[in-house]
TrEMBL record:
<dbReference type="InterPro" id="IPR011993">
    <property type="entry name" value="PH-like_dom_sf"/>
</dbReference>
<dbReference type="GO" id="GO:1902936">
    <property type="term" value="F:phosphatidylinositol bisphosphate binding"/>
</dbReference>
<keyword id="KW-0963">Cytoplasm</keyword>
<feature type="domain" description="PH">
    <location>
        <begin position="256"/>
        <end position="360"/>
    </location>
</feature>
<keyword id="KW-0343">GTPase activation</keyword>
<dbReference type="Pfam" id="PF01412">
    <property type="entry name" value="ArfGap"/>
</dbReference>
<feature type="domain" description="GATA-type">
    <location>
        <begin position="18"/>
        <end position="53"/>
    </location>
</feature>
<dbReference type="GO" id="GO:0005886">
    <property type="term" value="C:plasma membrane"/>
</dbReference>
<dbReference type="GO" id="GO:0005547">
    <property type="term" value="F:phosphatidylinositol-3,4,5-trisphosphate binding"/>
</dbReference>
<dbReference type="GO" id="GO:0008270">
    <property type="term" value="F:zinc ion binding"/>
</dbReference>
<dbReference type="GO" id="GO:0005737">
    <property type="term" value="C:cytoplasm"/>
</dbReference>
<keyword id="KW-0863">Zinc-finger</keyword>
<dbReference type="InterPro" id="IPR001164">
    <property type="entry name" value="ArfGAP_dom"/>
</dbReference>
<keyword id="KW-0677">Repeat</keyword>
<protein>
    <submittedName>
        <fullName>ArfGAP with dual PH domains 1</fullName>
    </submittedName>
</protein>
<dbReference type="InterPro" id="IPR052589">
    <property type="entry name" value="Arf-GAP_dual-PH_domain"/>
</dbReference>
<dbReference type="GO" id="GO:0005096">
    <property type="term" value="F:GTPase activator activity"/>
</dbReference>
Length: 378
């Protein structure tokens, strides 16, 4: 609507000029964004508008409901989210992680800076060497397995060797651990690790999950490590599955955990007392830990599909003994029943939904081999 006393002013940004704003330009949140960057000509959601304010030399933010003049409207109309995407994202590598509204603040902010401040996706020469398969090396703060202290450790990711390694001493010749790219995963865990740049790296050793918790004081450095791991995984999978398209490979690069939190559990005889444990649902692996930052799981449970006689039930068998939280869950497998208890009904509902999503999904051929390994564990 126009201001009659000042025809150049606009109190409400014209609806016809907002036809491209079905989602935020940054985090893809499917809402009609109520904020805009005047300098970049894009509409963003409220959460991402706060991140744009952190780069005022690049982006000047304004609310859609504020007073606009004709020149500002013309600028937005000339660019818009679609044109901005075509300009600033024209050379995004397939492996590069595009954050969504559910990702941590640091990951979204570095995506903004990569696009608009460093122009990494307009000019290939501005991208980091790991994009070309050169790996990455440097120092990260790693949490010690025994004392819980974070200490500086040298990390080397080599695509040629197919592994991520870290060394306890700067001049050490032999690595403390070798993590094969084949089983490597990385996910940002700022709340769990207690650092805004906290990254959890997992890998398989003897078909059991191992955790490493790291961070770096520089957010860009940490995101570079994350995307370097994705690049290494991408190039590995391209060789392993030569006929697969980028769209098929990208979802396999890294994954967030389906669900995490505390539950109580009892043993296989269902006569032992219930113990509080931290549980992580990683694809079909349900792992439990004494502490959320433990390097090794106390145990792992394979969750198969309903076609293979896996079921999740609300509640516990009436014969269950011992004191436990009130909201039980029973997972039925071909071999035994696993009993868990949640503190709240909401947690019980969320865990059951997570289990159900996995059980409803048919098993892939390679998952049968994983299931067989679990069945033959001592």
């Amino acid at each position: 609507s126009k201001n009659e006393s000042n025809p150049a002013a606009v109190f409400c940004f014209p609806e016809q000029e907002r036809h491209e704003t079905g989602s935020c330009n940054i985090c893809l949140n499917i809402i009609k964004p109520d904020w805009a960057s005047l300098t970049l000509g894009v509409f963003v959601c409220q959460a991402c508008s706060l991140l744009h304010r952190s780069i005022p030399h690049i982006s000047r933010v304004k609310a859609v409901h504020e007073t606009w003049d004709g020149g500002e409207v013309e600028l937005m109309a000339a660019m818009g989210n679609g044109a901005a995407k075509a300009k600033y994202e024209q050379k995004v590598p397939a492996f590069y992680y595009r954050p969504t509204h559910s990702d941590c603040k640091m990951l979204r902010e570095q995506w903004i800076r990569a696009k608009y401040e460093r122009n990494e996706f307009e000019f290939i020469e501005k991208q980091e060497p790991y994009s070309a398969g050169n790996g990455i090396e440097g120092f990260l703060w790693k949490r010690g397995r025994d004392n819980g202290q974070f200490l500086s450790r040298k990390f080397v990711l080599s695509e040629r060797e197919g592994a991520l390694k870290y060394f306890n001493k700067q001049d050490a010749r032999d690595p403390k651990a070798v993590m094969k790219i084949e089983t490597l995963n990385a996910t940002f865990q700022p709340a769990k690790i207690g650092n805004p740049c906290g990254l959890q790296i997992t890998y398989l050793k003897d078909n059991s999950t191992r955790n490493i918790f790291v961070y770096h004081s520089d957010a860009k450095e940490m995101v570079d490590w994350f995307n370097a791991i994705r690049a290494a995984r991408f190039h590995y999978l391209q060789v392993a599955f030569p006929g697969a398209s980028d769209e098929e490979l990208v979802p396999k690069l890294t994954r967030n955990f389906m669900k995490e939190g505390f539950m109580e559990k009892t043993g296989p005889k269902h006569t032992e007392g219930f113990k509080k444990r931290w549980f992580t649902m990683d694809d079909r692996r349900l792992m439990y830990f004494k502490d959320p930052l433990d390097a090794y799981a106390r145990g792992e449970v394979f969750i198969g599909s309903k076609e293979n006689s896996y079921t999740v039930l609300s509640g516990l068998p009436p014969t269950t003994q011992g004191h436990h939280w009130n909201h039980g869950i029973t997972i039925v497998t071909p071999d035994r029943k696993f009993l868990f208890a949640c503190e709240t009904e909401a947690e019980q509902r969320d865990w059951i939904a997570a289990f159900q999503r996995v059980i409803n999904r048919p098993m892939r051929p390679q998952e049968y081999a994983v299931e067989a390994h679990f069945k033959h564990k001592p």
